[in-house]
Prior knowledge:
Blueprint: E1 12-16, E2 25-26, E3 56-57, E4 69-73, E5 107-109, E6 114-115, E7 120-121, E8 133-135, E9 143-149, E10 152-157, E11 161-172, E12 178-192, E13 207-209, E14 212-217, E15 222-227, E16 230-233, H1 240-246, E17 259-262, E18 273-277, E19 289-292, E20 295-307, E21 310-315, E22 326-330, E23 336-342, E24 347-353, E25 369-375, E26 380-385, E27 391-395, E28 398-403, E29 406-409, E30 419-420, E31 423-424, E32 428-433, E33 441-450, E34 454-461, E35 467-469, E36 472-474, E37 479-480, E38 490-493, E39 496-499, E40 503-505, E41 508-512, E42 533-535, E43 538-544, E44 556-565
Antiparallel strand pairs: 1-4, 2-3, 5-8, 6-7, 9-10, 10-11, 11-12, 13-14, 14-15, 15-16, 17-22, 18-21, 19-20, 19-22, 20-21, 23-24, 24-25, 25-26, 27-28, 28-29, 30-31, 32-43, 33-41, 33-42, 33-44, 34-37, 34-43, 35-36, 38-39, 40-41
Amino acid sequence: MAAIIEVSYFNSFWMKQVNTTNSNVVWPNGYPYNTGAQALPVLGGGTIAAFPASAVDTTVNPVSGLELNWFIEESRIRGGYNNTQTDYGVKAYIVEEEPAQQHRFNSLIYSGIYNSRTGINNTNQFSVGVDITKSLDPAYGSIQKLFSEDTNMTVFQESKVSRALIDKDAVYSAEGGGSMTSSSLVIGQITPYLGEYGISRNPESFAYYGFQKYFTDRDRGVVLRLSRDGITEISSYGMIDYFRDNLPLISEDNTWIIETSLTTASNPSNNRQILVSGVNLSTTLIGMQVIVNGNFFGYIVDVAITGSSSGIVTVNRIVIVAAGDIVTFNSTAPAKIMGGYDIHNKNYILSLQQAPQYAGYTTVNPTDYSTLAFDELINGWVAFYSYKPSQIFSLRNDMYSIEYANIWKHYSNAVSVGSFYGTLNSSNITFIFNKDSSFNKVFQTVNYEGDNGWQVESFISDATGYDFATEGWEQFNDQAQSVLSYVDGRYISSGITYYSGFNRKENKYYANLINISTAQPGEVVFGQQVSGIKGRFATVKFSTDSSTDVGGNKELWAVGTKVNYIR
């Protein structure tokens, strides 16, 4: 039987010795590439039958037999009779004084021109007779990113940001004034921006909108904006401590994530699935390498969880496993600082993602990342988000993000509010009541203006100084009982409706604060009938409940409290 084989290149044909006598061979295309047990000779005389690499013997793992390839070269185009015969082509001979490879991490180089209208394509030409390189100060580290806009180019090094002219140069007069003039230079004068800032080794943090460019400098623990007024530390707008503490945690080394399991059964439904046990599976395994008995078999494309520590892993290639095989999931998952621009809300989105850590058979720590937004209109960081994007980008007036191989559209009316990557999350806001902070007071009530569906998760006063307790030094806080939302706190007794949480009066929600603190040394012992908590200030966390208009909009306009001052 003849078979048609598609080849990738003219003049080269791949032929494989095949043994069709084994009925256990699984053929991916349903038929062998060529029939006959022994078709081609082997160097040294004799013949050998072998399996093709893409065929799998279901009785033996790994594949039994030898795998041999033969390549036959044809000198005529398409192998046709009297077709044009190819030759070796042009050979370039050049003598280099320094033939050793050079790694110039601080230099730029450009090739010949490219013009699609005239068919000129000299992008593979780098003439040594022309000055085609431009170097920056190596003391500022390697070049991490180039960004061109209009007729200028921004060059980001690890510790410096510079501006380079494109297709022009600056000529200075005797008085020191500069004027722009046409030049044959591709890359003109390079001028650094003021400030010892760079992009470190995180070019993925870069995002831009209009004339504003955002990026991070991990080495200095800051988030930066480059605009017409130069470089500004936007991390200093209320978030100095946060970025100073969290940016250095982003490691530059790849972390090998290893999950080893013992299969309890062979492929459950097809030859691309593995049934595993003893592992807490999650979708975070998608994209990881699959190693069976030390041999690479492909990548994970899907995970189906069947139990608390079992499930089915789907691989992108054929893989045969049996009970007793050792399956390892490996991945290089480096930490990264992912940046993007949300054109819908006009926010810079920044996601700090630590490398996932696996301890034995545990899953990824859900707190290994934080995604937050910076709003240019108020010069402040406005929100933390609960999604972990692989990429962020905007198209027209919509924002998109990529999670593994999935593209998600944000702010879509087709999904619930607070839903990211198919998971519905509650919203929360934490703030501080700090009026007259020098006075001791009792916080008696809490109220808010807004939509129904908000609850108080925590209401905690400031801590006292350290006191030596029985088991060591301790601090004490007054704490109030959580306040249920208007719907969750509603109950009926003897035909009368009561509200144990927020109650609504004139479209404003009120609730008393019940003290659940433990009596401190020297205090009068009290019970939970005591109203209010004492302190100079209080930290309060509001969140949406899980029963009121789930997935709908819930606005919070104003929050207040009633206090009594302690004289």
